[in-house]
Amino acid sequence: MPQQKVITDESAGVITRVEELAYELKIEEAMTRDPNVVNPRMQMKEVLELFRDKQISGAPVVSSGKLVGIISIEDLIRALRDLGRRELSASVADYMTREIITVNSYDSIIEALKLFSKTRVGRLPVINEAGQLVGIITKGDITRGLMDALQHDYQAEEVRRYRASHLFQDIISDRTSLILRYRIKQGDFVHGGAASSNIKRALLRLGADPQIARRCGIAIYEAEINLIIHTTNGGEVRVEIEPHQILMETRDDGPGIEDVELAMKPGYSTATAEIRELGFGAGMGLYNIRNCVDEMQLESTPAKGTRLVMVPGNDSKEWELSRATTPGQGTRLTMKIYLHPQKTTEKNHQQKENAP
Amino acid sequence: MTLQEIIDRLNLTVLTQNKDFDRITATSGYTSDLLSCVMSGAQKKGVWITLQSHSNIVAVAALLELSAVIITEGATPDPATITRANEEEITLLSTPEFTYPVVGKLWEMGLKSG
After folding, report:
1. Directed axis angle between helix A210-230 and helix B56-64, to 10°?
2. pTM score, two decimals?
3. Is A192–B63 a contact, with Cβ atoms under 8 angstroms apart?
4. Cβ-defined contact of A19 to B23 (cutoff 8 Å)
5. How far apart (Å, rounded) are the C-alpha atoms in residues A167 and A177?
6. Which domain does B44 fall in, by range?
7. Of A41, A58, A149, B60, whose CB neighbour count within 10 A is largest?
């Protein structure tokens, strides 16, 4: 497996993640709780002491439990300019800003960001559902909140990816593989695509090239939808991941495909009008799979079932159709993708091994 | 071009949660109502124009990593589909217009097939 080429769009992903986080993160998660407050009768020199002691640059002004204004370092500078250091006996009420712009604790931080860019305020008092002052938020709080959240989920995903990608190196055997199985229910359109998304995610965590993961996702999606639409009792998706290849297989127990070669033709479909109305049954499923994988086998016994085997790979577009002759085998689709296309001998070996 | 430009110019309704559409780019367009065709034809970061509105459009859009799906002719996805789209972070947009004029406008804006 190409260990060094893991996840290319990581850096791009981080940027969009910040944007997403601005919507996901709530103001109450980033704000400073229980902020230092002042009352309107306090003198400006007390404010100066408070700002210096607590190393803050602003505070809400509260009078009998009610938010009446906000006082900031800019107001303090104004007072200093007007009165001089010794004369800072003027009260907070004379210098505070009375038009208060507040934000709700349950809003996303994007709301605070919008206010910061629209107005010129440096801090916003945070109000809860009951209208009580619960905190204060600055741009610095937002930056810190975003960084923490980002680091948190970046680390979580990194650890997952790290552990997963080491799976093949740390376990010693003659041949190590990881098998993923998914049960697909007939007619379950609502969950259609769930197995393919999960497989794609697993492959990315294992360090697969994003392009390969995408192709596997598409091939499995088509096979998964086939199980949902065309089978009697649904079927199973099985993915076997090895350091050098990915083998994807679906299996069901009926009704089987009458004419496998015809089924492979682009545009040929046996889907009903209702199914087609939903946009399925274009007759392109198997054809799409063939284009996504390096090797494909479709075995089907009418009235019994179908087996599809797929192996996705890099360049080669060889594929093979075979028809099971043993009754009772059902239908099987096999798909393979080679992660190292140069290994032709291994490829032949694999082909033989996967023959029914 | 950004998704915001597309939403503004085509006067689209945003069905899923709001995002910073100024930061999401669309680099190509694709149209078909047949999911398998979309699977093989649509490109990453593309916009898909369709009149399908059932939940599987989300699976297709997520697997292909599309920037957005524009649902035409005023077809409305059910709430479960919208929930699923939000979970998968897929943007669903809606318009009462037919697919043809929508595609025409996008092309005029400079969004080619890619």
Report:
1. 160
2. 0.57
3. no
4. yes
5. 9
6. 3-109
7. B60
Q: Does CATH number 3.30.300.30 belong to domain A178-354?
A: no
The Cα-based distances of A262 to A5, A136, A322, B106 in angstroms read: 40, 68, 13, 38
The pLDDT value recorded for residue A314 is: 43
> Per CATH, is A3-144 categorized as 3.10.580.10?
yes
* Cβ contacts of A236 within 8 Å, gap of 6 or more: A181, A182, A183, A184, A250, A251, A252
User: Could you tell me if residue B44 is inside a domain?
Assistant: yes
Contact A200 B89 (CB under 8 A): no
* B37 falls within a domain: yes
What was the ipTM of the complex prediction? 0.74
Is B114 contained in some domain? no
Q: What is the DSSP letter of B12?
A: P
DSSP state, residue B97: S
For residue B13, pLDDT over 90 is answered with yes
Give the number of other Cβ atoms within 10 Å of residue A152's Cβ. 10
Residue B25 covered by a domain: yes
The pLDDT of residue A50 is above 60: yes
Instruction: Provide CB contacts within 8 A for A328, sequence distance 6+.
Output: A301, A304
- Indicate the domain borders of chain A: 3-144, 178-354
Q: Give B-chain residues touching A16 at CB under 8 angstroms.
A: 23
* DSSP code per residue over A154-181: HHHHHHHHHHHHHHHHHS-SSS--EEEE
- β-bridge mates for residue A237, sequence order: A182, A250
Given CA atoms A205, A209, A211, A217 in this order, what sign does their dihedral have? negative
Structure-token pair, residue A50 = 């408070």
Q: What is d(CA A1, CA A207) in angstroms, rounded to the nearest whole number?
A: 8
DSSP state of A94: H
